[in-house]
């Protein structure tokens, strides 16, 4: 009986010891695992568990193996970062990664620094030193839209085009801004624009000055070969009429002055005074002013919008001027139906389409209609569309010819 009791006591002690050993081993293991996870979370890998003790050799080997796997993955990730960094440093496109709304720069490649003409970029607000408008362009650029900026760095004058995309790193959203030097393209475009402008201006001036010069020479020659009395009575006997000649010169001179005045209007546009507007109110004002002319010309006008109550942030008088010019062009194109419609696209841009069924714009003129003083109309000044496009650009928008077919011509105002 005593042997049985002693045996039970021994078994109980063994069970207690086993339980205590198991609890101690489990607690020790949990502490090691917790320590390793805390270290890895803090990006600390300078640790190693001893493998010379029999009691926890196996678990220590397992934990050390996990650490080696983590170190290997971390090393490979670092190698990839170096690889991608080298790759980005060897492209001509500037790359800037912004990781908060305050403009903190997490990364900028070599091309970005070279294009901006700076040695380092830690925050976008550093760009204020170069140009405040450059800083605004970097903050303003959003996914799906392009921004342009002109500035002068320590080396030269630059023009860049910026685009951006969004990504997530962990729980943090970042904005990746890519930009390229478009100075040469801008120079070519500017040179081409000047060439077209000079060609049109020269043509206009020559058409006016040539008859003035010719008529002046004729009047001077007539005056030199005739007596004053004959000059005063000129035109009565089939001779040159001095009065008509002088009136022609005066009329041509006034036309030239009017042309110069048009150029002054083209180069002195006022800065827009923007406010929130309901587009339907602006269109209603335009239709009200044009009602009599449209009625006399037999033209019907309509307006529709989707969604309702489309709003824009703009200068009411300047947008009114654009719409009036669009309706005037439609009347001159012999349209009988003018449709104005407004919509909001997926990027929250407001797009206003002005469509008419008048005579189409010739294909060869579609690229020229926005050039100053170019016109397909005998009585047109050729500055209306250019001024309208300039107004839209001052609203950070654009004016384009969407289409011109035998049945419909559509101009689109895009407010971003």
What would you say this structure looks like, in words?
This protein is an alpha+beta fold. It contains 10 helices and 12 strands. The longest helix has 43 residues. The model has no long low-confidence stretch (mean pLDDT 76).
Spatial strand sequence of the major β-sheet: 2-1-5-4-3
What does the radius of gyration come to? Answer: 39 Å
Number of helices: 10
Q: State the helicity in percent bands.
A: 40-55%
| Tally of strands | 12
- What proportion of the residues form beta strands (DSSP E)? 15-25%
Distance between the termini: 98 Å
Largest sheet: 5 strands, antiparallel
Give me the secondary-structure category.
alpha+beta
The low-confidence runs, each spanning 5 or more residues with pLDDT under 50, are none
**SSE order in H/E notation?**
HHEEHHEEEHHHEHEEHEEHEE
Molecular shape: elongated
Mean pLDDT across every amino acid position: 76
Layout of SSEs?
Elements: H1 2-41, H2 57-89, E1 94-98, E2 105-108, H3 110-116, H4 132-140, E3 147-152, E4 157-169, E5 172-181, H5 183-225, H6 228-232, H7 242-267, E6 275-278, H8 279-297, E7 300-306, E8 311-314, H9 316-332, E9 337-344, E10 350-356, H10 384-394, E11 398-404, E12 409-415
Parallel strand pairs: 7-9
Antiparallel strand pairs: 1-2, 1-5, 3-4, 4-5, 6-8, 9-10, 10-12, 11-12
């Amino acid at each position: 009986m005593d042997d049985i009791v002693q045996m039970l006591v021994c078994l109980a002690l063994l069970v207690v010891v086993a339980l205590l050993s198991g609890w101690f081993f489990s607690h020790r293991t949990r502490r090691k695992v917790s320590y390793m996870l805390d270290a890895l979370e803090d990006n600390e890998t300078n640790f190693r568990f001893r493998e010379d003790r029999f009691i926890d050799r196996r678990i220590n080997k397992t934990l050390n193996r996990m650490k080696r796997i983590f170190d290997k993955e971390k090393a490979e990730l670092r190698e990839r970062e170096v690889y991608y960094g080298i790759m980005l440093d060897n492209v001509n496109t500037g790359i800037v990664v912004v990781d908060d709304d305050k403009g903190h720069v997490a990364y900028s490649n070599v091309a970005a620094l070279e294009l901006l003409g700076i040695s380092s970029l830690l925050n976008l607000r550093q760009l204020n030193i170069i140009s405040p408008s450059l800083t605004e362009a970097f903050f303003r650029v959003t996914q799906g839209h392009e921004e342009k900026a002109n500035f002068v760095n320590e080396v030269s004058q630059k023009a860049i085009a910026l685009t951006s995309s969004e990504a997530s790193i962990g729980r943090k959203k970042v904005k990746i801004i890519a930009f390229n030097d478009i100075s040469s393209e801008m120079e070519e475009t500017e040179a081409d624009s000047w060439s077209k402008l000079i060609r049109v201006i020269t043509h206009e001036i020559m058409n006016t000055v040539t008859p003035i010069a010719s008529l002046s020479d004729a009047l001077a020659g007539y005056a030199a070969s005739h007596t004053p009395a004959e000059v005063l009575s000129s035109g009565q006997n089939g001779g040159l009429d001095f009065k008509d000649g002088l009136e022609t010169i005066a009329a041509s001179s006034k036309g030239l002055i009017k042309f110069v005045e048009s150029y002054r209007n083209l180069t002195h546009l006022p800065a827009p005074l923007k406010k929130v507007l309901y587009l339907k109110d602006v269109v209603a004002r335009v239709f009200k002013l044009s009602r009599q002319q449209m009625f006399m010309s037999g033209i019907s006008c309509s307006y529709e919008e989707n969604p309702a109550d489309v709003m824009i942030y703009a200068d009411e008088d300047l947008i009114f001027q654009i719409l009036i010019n669009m309706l005037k062009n439609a009347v001159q194109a012999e349209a009988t139906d003018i449709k104005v419609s407004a919509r909001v696209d997926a990027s929250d841009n407001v797009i206003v389409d002005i469509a008419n069924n008048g005579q189409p714009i010739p294909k060869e003129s579609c690229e020229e209609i926005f050039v100053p003083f170019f016109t397909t109309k005998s009585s047109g000044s050729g500055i209306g569309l250019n001024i309208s496009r300039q107004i839209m650009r001052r609203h950070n928008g654009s004016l384009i010819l969407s289409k011109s077919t035998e049945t419909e011509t559509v101009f689109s105002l895009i407010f971003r």
